[in-house]
Amino acid sequence: MDKSTFEDRKAIIAGPMHDSRRHDSAHKHVTGTADYIDDIPEPAGLLHGALGLSDRAHAEILNIDLSAVAAYPGVVWVFTGKDVPGVNDVSSNGSHDEPLLAETLVQFHGQPIFAVIAETRDAARRAALLAKIDYRDLPHWSDIDGALANGSPLVITPMTLRRGEPDTEMTNAAMRLKGQMRIGGQEHFYLEGHVAMAIPGEDDEVTVWSSTQHPSEIQHIVGHVLDIPSNAVTVNVRRMGGGFGGKETQGNQFAALAAIAAKKLGRAIKFRPDRDEDMSATGKRHDFLVDYELGFDAEGRIHAVDATYAARCGFSSDLSGPVTDRALFHADSSYFYPHVHLTSKPLKTHTVSNTAFRGFGGPQGMLGAERFIEEIAYAVGKDPLDVRKLNFYGQPGSGRTLTPYHQEVEDNIITRIVEELEETAEYRARRNAIIAFNRDSRYIRKGIALTPVKFGISFTMTAFNQAGALVHIYQDGSIHLNHGGTEMGQGLYTKVAQVLADSFQVDIDRVKITATTTAKVPNTSATAASSGSDLNGMAAFDAARQIKERLVAFAAEKWDVGATDVVFLPNRVRVGEIEIPFPDFIKQAYFARVQLSAAGFYKTPKIHWDRKAGRGTPFYYFAYGASCTEVSIDTLTGEYLIDRTDILHDVGRSLNPAIDMGQVEGAFVQGLGWLTTEELWWDEKGRLRTHAPSTYKIPLASDRPKIFNVRLAEWSENTEATIGRSKAVGEPPLMLAISVLEALSMAVASVANYKVCPRLDAPATPERVLMAVERMKAKA
């Protein structure tokens, strides 16, 4: 093989698909030239909408007087649920339990009751405050304790996972303990809040620009409230300024309101709530209360687990069913439970309906599992890492590979990940040094923890695991790409463009990435469940495959060579002994009437799930990772610093290492916020009081670890046939932040000489850390 042939082959193997490429909009993000919906030039005659919100947590609506609202200067129309042409419902799961506008009953403080359309946004917002509404207050509860005390109904049928004989085997365990853990919720706090703009068209048509992760659902909901078919609704999304799950279902109401007003008034309508309204009227991460009983032996090996996961779901079901299901799916974290019984309890509360958030219940389930390990470690007097390693899932044939939902863990690399990080982070030496430091330090105490991640990848609703893509090649050799995934800053567009460029062996600049639209790719799934690259990358690959097959057949016939003699090389095609520049090759194919367009499709294989039986294979594969964090706390104030974090994360064979590294780092910091500074609080009247940056604290740049070492497991390659043998990277790294909470817990435990599990709940705010320190002092 001569050198040129070798270089060609190297390019085919390496290609742009596994290169570190910049995000396609990175230069626009940093210069402020990336267009979001609020940046689109306003259509002539644009009107603005605002929400009229309830000021009661739970009440009957006796009378609504909107005369002052309608009379306010600039107001064009005021409408209520009675004015909805179709069905006054925006529920995402067909439960019909989430009215677009409340008519006779309000079920949380901040629930939309009416909408105002005015010439300016300021006029609409000011007018909305003038409504006079009479209520009859009803009993309300805004937290899990209140729901349990009042016998609250469940928003959806709970799920149970069971394997083995947990009842009898719990009794047979050498050691047993019971406990409880509170896990807080989290606000999405995307940089771009919710926004939607609707433009009326001919007949029943309407076009909606929405900041949503699920354009097809917006299409369905808009058709639902307008009583028109989906083919009359076009939804467009070029990019979002962050989503994190908060724009999977919660954009429904804003798009629906804009569309109703647009069709009624025949003018373009925009809804953009301010941050306070956005935080009050849209859902968050579910907070959980985990009650558990553990059976184990003197070495710390788990024998049986029995746990109940109660969740604050809010007033409607939204996505609480699949969220609480996924919490149970990850209640094992990386550990094998020989006998197990897990139950969800999705409780109704008089708060905004909670929804998807990065990890989708998995972080809460996994955090509970790490508490189990911590409890056992203190009970048997061992390093929690040793107890973790003792309980890891085994390799096939070990008898320790079956999950609580009866799926075999066949791709287990957690032991290798953890042991490699344990060595590179110098965990043992540092832990010994920290114990010595704590022995001599009066006020400052340190802690260190190394925790694993095993996260299942796929939608647990099997039907959602499908995707489509549309690819055109134009006569000049330029390529047009459209697929059902949405771009929220995570680099999905760039990765799928890399797949296409790799398939045709052309420069990525030749691929034009276009806005996601329901007019090109129908029936798309939400960009969620970490599946965006897996699904849409494979769909684009399938479209490229179809076009390439036609091109190869054309070349083989025209130049009278075998199909194997047609090879795509960097920006050219070799046909037998000749090489043709890619644009020239495409031009010749066009004149030969070769179809240069294809609709690709992909559905995830192997997966199936029976929720009622609690059995199946809901996940195509698992993504793994581990993090080691060292912290320092001030025992007088509860304040703390994150001194160092080391991460080793598994993304398979990365499609784009630079983007994946950014995802790992960002997810860790977002998880850090969830577990430390971000605290949601409702007052006794059911009002969310942490509804703005002044009262809700996301991490600052100064909160990141002072030393932050992040590596991808470059040796990893997905054993399943995913695109490029890569693995999902969106959600799994968020749970790396659990090492922070565990490290804080060790620092607190030092106050009582590591004899008692501190049972530090999340978020571990300085106040909560200080209270835990005081508890430890009392026990010491």
Automatic annotation (TrEMBL):
Q: Which residues form a coiled coil?
A: none
Which Gene3D superfamilies does UniProt cross-reference here? Aldehyde oxidase/xanthine dehydrogenase, a/b hammerhead, Aldehyde oxidase/xanthine dehydrogenase, molybdopterin binding domain
Domain Aldehyde oxidase/xanthine dehydrogenase a/b hammerhead, by residue range, is: 31-139
Biased composition regions of type Basic and acidic residues, renumbered to the chain: 1-11
* Keyword terms of this UniProt record: Molybdenum, Oxidoreductase
Organism of origin is Rhizobium changzhiense
Q: Which SMART domains match?
A: Ald_Xan_dh_C
**Class of this enzyme:** oxidoreductase
Quote the EC number.
1.17.1.4
Q: Could you identify this protein by its name?
A: Xanthine dehydrogenase molybdopterin binding subunit
- Please name the GO terms that the record assigns under molecular function: xanthine dehydrogenase activity
UniProt-listed NCBIfam families: xanthine_xdhB (TIGR02965)
Q: Name one Pfam family in it.
A: Ald_Xan_dh_C
Q: Where is this region: Disordered?
A: 1-25
Q: Has UniProt tagged this entry with the keyword Iron-sulfur?
A: no
